[in-house]
User: Fold these one by one.
Assistant:
Number 1:
Amino acid sequence: MAVYTDVAADDLTTFLAGYELGELLSYKGIAEGVENSNFLVHTRKGHFILTLYEKRVVAGDVPFFLALMEHLAARGINCPQPVKTRGGEALGHLCGRPAAIVTFLDGMWIRRPDPRHCYAVGVALAKLHLAGLDFPQQRRNALSVDSWRALYDHSAARADSVQPGIASTVESELTHLEQRWPQDLPKGVIHADMFPDNVFFLDNTLSGLIDFYFACTDTLAYDVAICLNAWCFEPDHSYNVTKGRELLQGYMRTRALSPAELDALPLLARGAALRFLLTRLTDWLNVPEGALVRPKNPIEYLRKLRFHQTIASVRDYGVLPERAGA
Amino acid sequence: MAVYTDVAADDLTTFLAGYELGELLSYKGIAEGVENSNFLVHTRKGHFILTLYEKRVVAGDVPFFLALMEHLAARGINCPQPVKTRGGEALGHLCGRPAAIVTFLDGMWIRRPDPRHCYAVGVALAKLHLAGLDFPQQRRNALSVDSWRALYDHSAARADSVQPGIASTVESELTHLEQRWPQDLPKGVIHADMFPDNVFFLDNTLSGLIDFYFACTDTLAYDVAICLNAWCFEPDHSYNVTKGRELLQGYMRTRALSPAELDALPLLARGAALRFLLTRLTDWLNVPEGALVRPKNPIEYLRKLRFHQTIASVRDYGVLPERAGA
């Protein structure tokens, strides 16, 4: 949850004067998103989300995110759409930060996903991958295998203070993944952060996707691996193979996974677990002064990583035999 | 800012089934209010605020607050109105906490109030006092002079760790106020927390009052003293006599202050400053683990208290001579 930057009504009124949104009626900081400051804004024209991009989002990347949302929405993906200024700009500045207004999406995120939700997420992820195939822009994944070691360097000295043994696990895992990370699998636009709080449902039907601020050009199957981590573990960190099967079936019925993609899935899942372990470790050890964010415990992803290390074949994730590259 | 309790969509759906509000379409935790968890809820019937009353609000007091809002709204005060269940109940339970739904109020709170805003606040406070005169319920002010010493006891040993000298200032002030606190001034319903973030404006016109969760039966002029503290100091802690005059004039044109009330104002203002100093000191020294609230610095109110200690007469607050009990 986060509102890092408070916005004064006068400043917001001035900002909104550049849009065709009518009089500002109310705005409230919302306790969602950990990277940016988000406000629910009510104007004469309706409800909108105002996002102020905080320092962890590179300002130069914001046009990519906004163009991507527009591209995906035009292809039937229900996601927030940037609202443009009278001058046709999607990106502005407010309180010294890049800022944008997007449409408000109804729907709730599911705190306790069940297998049906996982199936729906698989379908939605595959549709997103297909809809992104002709997106012309590229953005490097700043949080993939070639960045992990540098990211870990910030935490290495103190990693074992969180739990003894993290350092050696991470160091050997880094080496393992760097040597084996697949380079030739199908690439495209990935969401890269499709956690339950970024997927909206209405009456158990998936109604929309939000938060494209980690989206980038990367291996599509890696996005599937992120979702396995994000959706298919129970609160006690055990892997739920039914959820995994549903997620993978939903995905594969919409976009086939090649034998090479399926074979790589355990390794990609280890990478995804390590990626979230590393960012959470960084956040855990470096809570900025005055932060209004409770860092997420990195141990959850240490346990997921150790689970993936035991996986012998993609079948262990719930892929049915006839699908598992047989 | 605060969302202390996360609410799952399923639980909220079940809760809302008791109301005539139609299908739940979305809800978001909002970063406002430091005592309770607040959610902006969108249903087929519109937008509402859901409040979960956290432990600092005594469950037994909630019916008072809800009945008061209903009473005031019926008398023309624009404040949130409780939405009742099909069974006519304003108060329910959700996630193990007392919970209520109130109507959503448009309007923005003013980060940088100017004298016009202070005038409007004075008028609104007086109207609230008048509208509350025939409210039949009573609630003792749990944060008035007879509670301050016990409140301070929690912080006394560590008070000087915040700033050397706080302890001696507080101790002598407690004695001073306990001996002189006025008992016979007009009493009634007071808001008791009418800070800028609880007063909404639309286009510089005061449009509504929110957050009645400190409201109680107490000395009306004490509420004025709270507002002097909350509205009439600059960010550098200097007192702005123009703002003070406007606030007092707005109030007095709506409800006259008797000579006895005016004479008591400097003492009441010291008390109000001490009350917020003490609660902030408590919060500052006792941040609960996992808190998502940044405690407010108590020093602001130490400085305000020391200012009020120098006040010789109510004229120093900006009351014009002809009004100042002359």
Note: Chain A has two domains: 9-104, 109-317.
Number 2:
Amino acid sequence: MTSQMATGPKRAAGGPLNGVLVIDLTRVLAGPYCTLLMSDLGARVIKVEIPETGDDARQIGPFIKQKSAYFMSLNRGKESIALNLKIDRDRQILHQLLARADVVVENFRSGTMDKLNLGWDTLHERHPRLIYAAVSGFGHSGPYQSKPAYDLVVQAMGGIMSLTGQEGGPPTRVGTSIGDLSAGLFTAVGISSALYHRSQTGEALKIDVSMLDCQVALLENAIARYLTTGSVPGPLGARHPSIAPFDAYTTDDSHVIVAAGNNNLFERFAKAIGGRQLAQDPRYATNDLRCQNVEELKHDIEALLARHTTAQWIDILDKAGVPCSPINTVSDVLSDEQVKYRNMVITTPDPIIGDIKMAGNPIKFDRFDDPHTRPAAPDLDADRQRILASLGIETAKKEEI
Amino acid sequence: MTSQMATGPKRAAGGPLNGVLVIDLTRVLAGPYCTLLMSDLGARVIKVEIPETGDDARQIGPFIKQKSAYFMSLNRGKESIALNLKIDRDRQILHQLLARADVVVENFRSGTMDKLNLGWDTLHERHPRLIYAAVSGFGHSGPYQSKPAYDLVVQAMGGIMSLTGQEGGPPTRVGTSIGDLSAGLFTAVGISSALYHRSQTGEALKIDVSMLDCQVALLENAIARYLTTGSVPGPLGARHPSIAPFDAYTTDDSHVIVAAGNNNLFERFAKAIGGRQLAQDPRYATNDLRCQNVEELKHDIEALLARHTTAQWIDILDKAGVPCSPINTVSDVLSDEQVKYRNMVITTPDPIIGDIKMAGNPIKFDRFDDPHTRPAAPDLDADRQRILASLGIETAKKEEI
């Protein structure tokens, strides 16, 4: 069962970034996630890796037949060439790649590219059409610019951990690497808008994205709540700070998520769970009052929900048009009919380990195919000959470069 | 203290999307977050709101002098015009706006635009250059397409809640509305790459983003872990599933985050906390072994960390080059020197309530200003005359349209 969009009769291969050549110097997560998205959008992504070991993610589990499934899910659709950027000869090959490229992406610590004589000033002078995107822990300026960072560090430093977890409970990380992934996404926005800018003006831009900055940009209403009330927002379990009912509620066998964002939905919800009286209760007459009395409300709701299982309630609430969900595990997600219909679980055929499933591309375009099978991630240096030949670069083995 | 990027002598106003006109039909969060980003990148964003009440976010707190600080932080830099899209006259004004626009963005439930006779087929025929971006709970196809969704619903349905929280603990939401925000980000990637595509081919695209799909795309290594091991990943508190030490550790007064992603960093960390013997311990010799013995490792680390406060440890670990952080509250974030240096807390001057602080733009370009002050969010319909005049649209009051 693959995706079928309602509109758009003609479908083309690739995507809106067809024809764009990206030279990808990134490792592990924020950078590779950005270039994965660009590859899904039709760009050709050439991954430049350190000889012998390659991208650090090749050493991060889980492994299947000694290949990292983690690496594979982040690098499908890309090509690999191994270059040692500390060696002149390989740096010359890189320059030949860059001379033909539209974009270079790197996620080294600030200053590393300059030390390799590959900083923005150098590259911009030599390759004036080349867009340069840097994604790093703290960005290319400011007092922390040379500090090391990992996802967990920016989740903690940027405030999202202070909002995640149970009230008074132990520290809780967002369960996926949102520090890296969000930085990859903002960088992809930066690059694609810079490609548009270049198409209009001829000018290439440098983009400087900091993982910490991106965390701040995700704080959403927490900043406004703090500045307005003066009280420091903390974690609230599963509930929303200013909408009720909007929480996880206990049922006979587990939990159900209910998000009743306005009075109309609250009435519909109350009626559906056999609690018509809740909708008449003066304590719950408005969203503001429901937020003030959120614990009593939860207690009253859970007394009613105890009568059925989660699956039964989902059925009832779905019919009543109340936004609801079970708390799906990863296993549930992969077999969800909507997720499958939208082609969000795709397959890559690996020559050694066979078909591997992974997340698909969530940006659907009417005019482009959304293939169910995407090319597997490359082995280290697997595409060297093809890359050099296709770009008309003569190999170092035979010639001076 | 505002941002100063190292490179780029000339600085221009706006950003790479200068000259792009966006007609924004979106409400509350996913859509407005997308168009906020586009505004920060230089696009002109005209927000079309329902007469009288406007965007629902105007009714969501916190409030300052009866104005929603929540609305204001999501809609700074945009212009507002009130149109009732169910009325012919107003729909004609909308068409005149769309005739001059590059992009229309909407986040109605699937089918709503068709009912208004404003679906993609209609708009594409009438305005062939117009890029159409839709962001909805479940997308414009599949069995759930007409179901209602809120952030919490897709967080639960898409699996991220099953990975967030304490082992065996109660359900835990990511503390900000990552279901909405990530969909807004993916939509922004879609739009800016579609602008590039149009610049190359002349063709306008329809973009269809589902909040649920975006959650699946954020599951990261959880899918690979489940498919490789067959065991369903659950929440792990603050720790990483496959790297150790990578967790929140108790100190004398609170917690410290340590992310020691490889053997070298582990040795450096062990030495810095006076636990050189840990680096020699065969139970902790490799990252794999440290993950297998992660609880003993945490116990041994916390025994050493009990000797000092978090602030003291940050000092020590910073000097040793070990990635670390305190768990910052929102208040800490707003006063962090790196956050301030990078201009991630900006000000908008509101005529009624004065200066309001909010998150800045995390995509920094060398060639464009990153102003510390951005225009305030508009009152409902505040820009009607200016919008119509600037686009050469004659007003409905005086003329037949």
Note: Chain A touches chain B through 161 residues (CB under 8 Å).
